[in-house]
Amino acid sequence: MDIRLLSTFLEVARVRHFGRTAENQHITQAAVSARIKQLEAYFGTVLFTRERNNIKLTSSGERLIGYAEVMVSTLQQAKYELSLQESKILQLSMGGTPNIWDAYLQNCLSIVTDKFTGYGFNAEVLSREQINRALIERTLDIAFAFDPLKVDELECKKIANLRLVLVSTTVCNVETALLEKYVYVDWGTAFSLEHGHRHPQKTAPFLRTSTGRIALDFILEKGGSAYLPVSLVEPFLNSGQLQLVENSLNWDRPIYLSYRKKSTSIEAINAVAALIPQIDPLTAYSLVKAGES
CA dist 247 to 22, 171, 172, 194, Å? Predict the structure, then answer.
């Protein structure tokens, strides 16, 4: 099937207008109509209802969207990777959640790009659900997450620990830190369960976020406390902008590496896994400079 048919379908579904779709795709409106008719003939169903200028997806059209997005994305990725073969450049796609990048993967990416020759790289920030789907759909080669991905097609192994510490902008104890502008960061499902046992609070956190960088920026500006990785806060501890909370316990969070068992990039993936012991989870260069200021 011509990928342009699905691309045009997705654009009509997005803008709900044949004329604007034609403009956005630099084709005629007649070509848009022809492509939609081809798709409808192929699937044997109506994808849109057209009443005057009001275009709506049918139930069949709604169901096709997810499949079309996967097919367009996969074919575009295939076209890109095949084009690299002519210049003999291999491609390796790495992914992780925002927290993984902030606290660990930045240094990993530096080491991997230094060690590998003849490769191009993609670095993706994705949610856990997106990581799972991208690995299965073969648009991602290797992924890092705080919780294991339990899918038969995927190999998942623990490769490191990330140490979290409770820090605050003032000198205080644990009880005070959790009551005054405490920022709860989502460090995975296991962390959430353990947090409830360790700190059975009656009061809700001042702020919840899925990203350590948001928590760090917030408490540096507004004051407060949060569990953050040593790699993220070390420069600010050294500069005195943050303090370790008195009598608080450290928290080690496992990091898992996942990939497809039958990946065509298995050799490169194994090489990355072999580099893991060399990774020092230093924070991003920009944060080190910020901590020095």
Answer: 64, 11, 9, 18
